[in-house]
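Entry 14. Structure prediction run on the chain below.
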Amino acid sequence: MKKMLIAVLGIVFVVVFCSICLAKTIELRMNLTTSESSVWMVGAREFKRLVEEGTEGRYKISIFPNEQLSGGDMVKGVEMLFTGVTDVDFHSVINMTGFEPKLTVVTMPWLFPEGYKSVDNILFNGEGGVKLKELIEKKGAHVLAFGENGFRQITNNVHPITGLADMKQLKIRTPAIAMYVDLFKLFGADPTAMNFAEVFTALQQRTIDGQENPLDTIRSAKIHEVQKYISLWNYSYDPIALSVSGRVWKKLSDADKEIFNKAGVAAMKKQVEASRALDSEILKSFESTMTVTRLTPEQVQEFKAAAAPIYEQYREKIGEELFKAFGYSF
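Output returned:
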C-alpha cells in the first residue's frame, strides 16, 4: 500500500511538474525602426497586448524601438528577421527591397493616383498586398499584416520646393534604395544614401540639405527641429510589415497561429487609423516652426513627368505582372 501511494504521488508530481514546464512563459523580442513616440508603437503595443491576452500569458512580447536589436541598422534589422535572429519584426517594406528588389514596386513614384483610397483598394484589400506578402514570405518570414508609415514628403534648409528648378543640386538624403537614388537624379538633385540613424546629425551639421520621409517619422525623429521647409507632394507610399520569423512561426501551434494572425490584423488596423488621424495634427505643429508648402496638381505633374522614365527603367526588374497587381500598366 505504501509503495502504491509513493507511486501515485510520483505520478502526480510528474504531471504537476510537466504542467508547470508547459505553462512557462515564452519571451519573444520585437525589433522596430522608430522611436517610442512614433505612431508605429500604437500597433506594436496593441499586438503585444492581444497576443499576451490571447495566449493567456504563455507568450510575452518585449518591444525594442530605435533598432536597438540591430545597432541602429535598418537593413541589418531586416536580415535578422529573415535569418530568425529576432522573433517579431516591424519594418518598412522599403528596407526589405535589398533582399527582394521586386518589393520596390510599392514605393514607385505616384503609384497610387487617389492617395489613401487607392492604397486601401490595392494594398490592404487587393491583389497588391497579397503579392507583397508572398514576396516577403519567400525570404523566410511570416507576414501577419501590413501597417502604414504613410506618404513620404520632402524637407530641406535652402528654400521651398515647388518645382524641378528648386531641386537642382540639393543634397537630399534618401534610403539606401537604388530606385530612390535614381529618381532624385532625374529630379536634378544630389541624392545621398544614408542610414536613418545618421540623418538628424547630418542635417544639424548641414552636411546634407534635406531628406524625405512620412510626416510621423519626421516628427518622431525630431527632424522638423533642424529643417526650415517642408513640401507636401505624396510622391511615394511607405507600408510597414508586421512579421514573425519563420523559426518562430513553425513552432507555433495552429491555435496560436490563429491568435497571432488575428492580433496582427487588429493591431495594424488600429495603427493605420492612428497614423492617418495624426497627419493633420502633425502638420499643424510643423506650421509653427517650418514653412509648409502644399504642391498644386500642376506642380506635382511637373515632377511626375520627370519621374516617368523610372518606370521603364524598373520594368524588367520588377516585372509587368507585379506592376499590374498594383494597377499600373505599360
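The first helix runs from residue 2 to 22.
Filed with the rest of this week's runs.
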